[in-house]
Fold:
Amino acid sequence: MRSMLKYIKGYEVQAVLAPLLKMMEASFELIVPIVMKWIIDIGISNGDQTYILHKGALIVLLGVIGLICSVTAQYFAARAAVGFSTKLRQQLFEHIESLGFSEMDSVGIPTLMTRMTGDVNQVQAGLNMLLRLFMRSPVIIIGAIFLSFSIDVPSALVFLGSTVVLAVAIFMIMYTGVPLYRKVQGHLDLILTLARENLTGARVIRAFNKQKEMAATFKREHDTLTDMQLYVGRIMASMGPLTYVMVNIGTILILWVGGVRVQSGDLTTGAVVALVSYMAQILIELIKLSNLIINLTRGIAGGKRVEAIFAIEPKMKKNTPEKSEPDTDISDTDISDTETYDTATSKPAAPDAAHVRFDHVSLSYYDDGEEALSDISFSAKSGETIGIIGGTGSGKSSLVNLIPRFYDATEGRVSIRGKDVREWPLTDLRACIGMVMQRSVLFKGTVRENLKWGNSAATDEALWEALRLAQAETFVREKKGGLDAAVEQGGRNLSGGQKQRLCIARALVRKPEILILDDSASALDYATDLRLRSALAGLEYKPTIFIVAQRTSAVRGADQILVLDNGAVVGMGKHDVLLETCPLYSEIDRSQRGGADANL
Structure:
């Protein structure tokens, strides 16, 4: 938790003033029982109404000043806590954004969302209450005990004994509660995962009539979470009744001891009233203290979970631009020696000079895990089209994900224009790549706003050109507003094929030097797919294109086709050559020959 103190920077004044003002409020409250003692022992005993009114006015003044201090302290505490959580959440978001896909996959999206929302909110609530009570409650309790000793030592021993017993009881409850809250938060991650799966997979669940089974699973886990929360809730809730019982027992003892001493003449009636008032103050503060401990327990548990995310170091380092000579150790004769590299910007000197090379590349998503790719070697010249085909799980997406450095190769290297992608600044690397993922992702806004993700400076003419190439111009023009037509979150107001075509257009807007289509035409009909491939083949700026596909028709015209099986290349060459030399490719093509793509 100490590592989070840096996020209070900028709110140090509020963080100091809040507890100090609360301490002032507590000091004024401690004076009130003494004034009451004076009123009873002096004013009432002597029948001095002027004295009573004077001291009564003093009590009112103390109350008003205390109220002002309390309201001001609440404001400062809230401002400091909200400012702290804002910085913490922002830094957490930036840290998560810096993580590679491997780290995100291992932690899980629901867990990251819980840490950024619920856990940060718990830390905020704990800090808010800490600033308001960590000075006030101790000052009241210690001050009440000290002043009670100044009034009557035998009675004050009751205060001291009650406080010690309560402190031990509260410590034991806190010691038990903190680990339990961690378990509760951990199970909450599981509940969020189930909820996310049920919502995103609602159509699949209904298609297979699995509503009852999924509801039963969710109910079972939810009941488990409820039982855990009730159990820890009972433990933490026991502090309230325990505090009431012990303080009330202490009050009874004070009245008993005080009554005996009043009868013997060793103590005044006003002193007994003051002692009871102090005991009441202790009762209230111990209740507040118990609530503080509950919130701190939750805040500490949430804080440790947030720290666990900060502790995850991204394995993928983001390089900063620097002037350095590129790695020119290129032995592959397929790569032209005439290609140049602009070392001043770390970018290719010209769009038509880009190339990609894989040198004995292997990939494992987790340490000591099974390899998703094994010893991949090939090169792509500038302007070539590379087709990648294979069965499900053969490693096609894994291979193309290495080019923009979504993952880093565990062995070998991937280079663009002779320079290892790990040496490129990520912003420069990804600026020259246009990628269309398997899953079409669009953001809430308009067609124009989504397309400008590819190039924020693109003109309307450039946007329409990209839509034409992606075979999306017709349906966009038919929509009300055209480029300003609304796109709902995730593109849910569009069909699967429309989403895919908009995603392709978004990649084409930036006119990338390397274009990666990761099975991005699976929702298109054969005729639209054919027109799309023809449009890509006719691009004037000739990017290097990688096409990941399930159908041989999609890669038939590629300059080079890679056939993957279990993460290894089992065939490489043009379509006609592979039909003769690669049994797997021949089998895939034969299985599709009777389909609609046989004539394309």
Q: What stands out?
A: The domain at 2-310 is CATH 1.20.1560.10 (ABC transporter transmembrane region fold). Residues 320-354, 595-600 have pLDDT under 50 and may be disordered. The first helix runs from residue 12 to 46.
